[in-house]
Amino acid sequence: MKRFLEYLEEYDGALITPGSNLYYLTGMAPQATEERLFLLVVNRDGESVLIAPKLYENEVEWKNVVFWRDEENPYGVLERVLSSLNLKSGKILVEDTMRASFLIHIERFLENYTFYPLSVVTKEMRMRKGEKEIRLMKKAAEIVDKVFYEIASRDLMGKSEKQVALEIEFLIRELADDVAFPPIVASGKNAANPHHSPGERKIRHGDFVILDFGARYKGYCSDITRTVAIGHANEKLKEIYEIVKEAQERAFQSVREGIKAGDVDIAAREHIARKGYGEYFIHRTGHGLGLEVHEEPYISQASERILENSMTFTIEPGIYIPNLGGVRIEDDVVVEKKGKRLTKAERELMVL
Amino acid sequence: MKRFLEYLEEYDGALITPGSNLYYLTGMAPQATEERLFLLVVNRDGESVLIAPKLYENEVEWKNVVFWRDEENPYGVLERVLSSLNLKSGKILVEDTMRASFLIHIERFLENYTFYPLSVVTKEMRMRKGEKEIRLMKKAAEIVDKVFYEIASRDLMGKSEKQVALEIEFLIRELADDVAFPPIVASGKNAANPHHSPGERKIRHGDFVILDFGARYKGYCSDITRTVAIGHANEKLKEIYEIVKEAQERAFQSVREGIKAGDVDIAAREHIARKGYGEYFIHRTGHGLGLEVHEEPYISQASERILENSMTFTIEPGIYIPNLGGVRIEDDVVVEKKGKRLTKAERELMVL
Any chain A CB within 8 A of the CB of B229? Predict the structure, then answer.
């Protein structure tokens, strides 16, 4: 919060609804507040008031809180709070994921204001992780390693993608707070679509299956992908697997404090292109990871972002051949002078 | 969509991002669009343009679509679309759940406009269900009936609330698209909190356990609550159970086309108050149900809303005694002259 106030100097205040930024700045993560106004108002002097539904009375600790009851109009409360914090005009940061309907109401109390997305400030802050954050991310990564080995020990043949995705989700939720995102299970030809939603297709002998999943542990995410062969590994896909594995390793080896994020993408991309599959690597090499599954720094070709110690991101090249299938291998990495893998599950091709 | 245009006459246009309203009006339910602008722009003449990420090219069918690529600025596209639809000022409806960060960008292209939440219009439309909608809601209700019987046939003693909630979720997701909301499992004293989140507490002999869960089937929700006793039913809680059951039945019997929603609440509330537990019934009797778990008509004491045929809502009175426990019984109901239950699982106390 102190660091946030330094950043806030360029702005007159901030309006923060629940989400990863509120959690990052205050530790508060109230559940199911979508329909009721729950809002932290901060001005540039660092004065703040929390407006919260009465229902949350027992969950919330904040120096200045105003609770509102279901019979009350929360926007009347808000108007008074904005006045008391002298925050009815100026440059105001607004939580990106706030509901538009809240913002529409809030605008009615303001004059001569300009809104800016809160992420403009928080993405810079959140990109560099603290020791405690990295500890939680390691734990989230250990959980997905465990889940991968457990799933790989089961007989997947004959199960639908949807069934396997449910099993993965079930395993994650026994060990973590929640999944970080709905697991992807893409089998056979479906694996040629990097964003495939698990469906009714049953896993068959000879399939390559992409398993992409993540855990959320005390707010922090992991994100892993492994591709396994079922019963037998087709020669062509085996060749592709080795190319992706080598591309992932080269990208990982390239990670160093002070280089551009784009250079990590290029390390993977050049290897795949050299082997003749450039046109089949159709997404960026990775994305930042933390309280959200997708955040800064993005590992894309054009990124000029300089990597710094304690940044965390994924490295996940893939090759996708229409009507044949696909391979993706993904690890989570932290910059500590060089790169260090957080996910450590087997990267050699496993034939189950 | 035709009916929507009639409602739209009072406004100059609408900006609709994915969610239950977009699904209701167009049948489109694109997944994972939170981070990328996916927006249907409609003007009062009924002209519309869909702006969608290129990634969704294969999923989307609309007469006029503009796709944008990751390298492009989607707001440049939007500015052109707003011009072409002559929609740069006036009274504009905005999807309630749109991200504030989108709205902040959109505002920069507009002049002399006033925003209104889209729900002002859609809540009126969506409250009265069509035949097909009611058919899907029946199916969603049948699924939770089945899941209740399956869970009641299992040995719950010694399992944690969290474990039972996961089992319920797993069962629902095998039969439906998804859960309608995270299941509530509240055991023993925890059942005194109507919004309890399932935790590590293990279910014990003598507990009353509140099970509250819902399924989403082709977009439509069900929502059921049953309270079961484990091994043995405490006399006091048994007495409370009978009071809640009778209150729920009286509220149900009161449902008739043409009465106020508030009268249904009062039918339950008066019975509970007469039995001396008025102060322990601490929430409204129910809420509308459809594409969302909470929508109009709300069944609360002060509601003047007149019930009409084809409206659907829950009836769910409860009694919550701090340091003892609680009981809630909930069914989904449709108005067809009188009320008709969609959920039909056993309402007599089950001692498992």
Answer: no
